[in-house]
Amino acid sequence: MSTPRTSRRLAALAGGVSLALAAVGCTPPPEEGGGGNGGDGEGDGGTTTAEGCEAFEEYGDLSGSEISVYTSITAPEDQPHIDSYVQFEECTGADVIYEGSREFEAQLPVRIQAGSAPDIAYIPQPGLLQTIVNDFPDAVVPAGDMASENVDQYFSEAWRGYGSVNDTLYGTPLGANVKSFVWYSPSMFSDAGYEIPETWDDLIALSDQIVEDGGTPWCAGIGSGEATGWPATDWLEDVMLRTAGPDVYDQWVNHEIPFDDPAVAEALETVGSILKNPDYVNAGWGDVQSIATTEFTEAGFPILDGECWLHRQASFYQANWEEYQEDVEVAEDGDVFAFYLPAMDTEEQPLLGGGEFVAAFDDRPEVAAFQAFLASPEWANAKIEATGPGWVSANTEQDTSLYASPIDQLSAELLADESRTFRFDASDLMPGAVGAGSFWEEMVNWIANDKANEDVLSAIEGSWPSS
Questions:
Q1: What angle is formed at CA 330 by the lines to CA 325 and CA 333, rounded to 5 degrees?
Q2: Which of 52, 85, 119, 416 could bridge to 24 as Cys pair (CB 3.0-4.6 Å)?
Q3: Has the keyword Electron transport been applied to this entry (predicted)?
């Protein structure tokens, strides 16, 4: 009878998944003859490390152990994650049992409270990680030494901070995305003689030039079902980083300054200079108010029809182009691509993004080893190869040449660039009543009902929880 690990691997291969990690020839460490990795194998009963498994020696012999992983990622998107564990399983002998659930956020606290927490969980936001740690302080295990060392070695200091609660590292970084992007058509730019802007003033000058040439530069949409409004919060967050700087941004996120502080008001005014400018929006869709009813998934499509020139949206938006038009090419010389949303000057290069984190609920050696593996370049590279376009890591030692998508490669390079100041999506860090409540709602009012800037910001400030 095949083991669960073997069955999953055979299924992946039968499905045509081609992984370099599946060909390294790793086998679980022998159970006899010295027990464990690292022996010289020359008559002393020791064993040698299997070829391709050198990076896994520090995890030791985990043969016979099982590690349960619980996430919000379900079929078919779960298979690349399962595939990315193969080398860890083969080199250590551990068996990783994956479970994805669409009810993850609701069920994880229930399982913790019932004493049936998974060994590992993928936490989609720092705010949820903080809630889990605060609500169940005896259930979540601080990251072990190996995982902590990997975070220090392979990720920027900001990522450690987002995975920490009360200065203790609980969540190690997993996936990431870049939100500071503007999508455009390289061929349209070339034909019109437009250049990619390097500063915010250049961006506004380009927008004005497009208007002067008879076009409407921007297309936008903030519709997203029950989450309508979040794309507008991303606009404010990206601009807040640029006009106020990262330190004030942090104060805003932590409510050390009120939501209606003059710095936030200035950022909203700057966003309004684009999104509420009738000469600038909403190409292919309508007037300013149409932004509120245009689905974010479709908002950039007028670029492919030659109606729109610029669309601000995250790296993960690339999947939408391919759904809209099967043969669309996302590349620097393709049908669409993206450039970095310019800062106020070329000296400061802030980067807005998001990501997920890995939390452990048991301190068994195999669990600590697996959390460390998920923070390693070996896992990042395996996940890149298993996934294909649409997934990015912020690991500074990943092999960015493995990315099949140019936009993923660009995103990874920006995330790994230590000269850039990374900040996490503000609404994901704020209390839920604000970040996934009043912030979304009031940005919709700002667009749909032309609610005044000061009234919008005051309403959000008034909704901030008192404790």
A1: 120
A2: 52
A3: no
Residue 275 structural domain:
181-352+423-463
| Domain CATH code at residue 39 | 3.40.190.10
> Do both 134 and 38 map to the same domain?
yes
**Token output for 12:** 């992946």
Residue 384 corresponds to which tokens in the numbers above?
């890149």
pTM here? Answer: 0.84
Same domain, 156 and 185: no
Does residue 38 sit in the same domain as residue 170?
yes
Residues 68 and 160 in one domain: yes
Q: In angstroms, what CA-CA distances link 412 with 45, 91, 318, 400?
A: 44, 27, 14, 7
Strand ranges inside 152-264, DSSP E: 164-165, 168-169, 172-178, 181-184
Neighbouring residues of 435: CB distance < 8 A, sequence distance ≥ 6: 127, 233, 426, 427, 428, 429
Same domain, 106 and 18: yes
Q: How far is CA 115 from the centre of its chain?
A: 30
Is 159 found in the same domain as 38? yes
DSSP count for the chain of H helices, then E strands: 21, 11
DSSP-derived letter for residue 434 is I
Which of 258-265's residues contact partners 24+ apart within 8 Å by CB, and which partners? 258/461, 259/434, 259/457, 259/460, 259/461, 259/464, 260/454, 260/457, 260/458, 260/460, 260/461, 264/236, 264/240, 264/457, 265/453, 265/454, 265/457
Query: Would you give per-residue pLDDT tens digits along the chain (467 residues)?
Result: 333 333 333 333 333 333 333 333 343 443 333 333 333 333 344 456 788 899 999 999 999 999 999 999 999 899 999 999 999 999 999 999 999 999 999 999 999 999 999 999 999 989 899 999 999 999 999 999 999 999 999 999 999 999 999 999 999 999 999 999 999 999 999 999 999 999 999 999 999 999 999 999 999 999 999 999 999 999 999 999 999 999 999 999 999 999 999 999 999 999 999 999 999 999 999 999 999 999 999 999 999 999 999 999 999 999 899 788 888 999 999 999 999 999 999 998 999 999 999 999 999 999 999 999 999 999 999 999 999 888 999 999 999 999 999 999 999 999 988 889 999 999 999 998 999 999 999 999 999 999 999 999 999 999 999 87
Amino acid of residue 438: S
User: For the chain, what is the domain count?
Assistant: 2
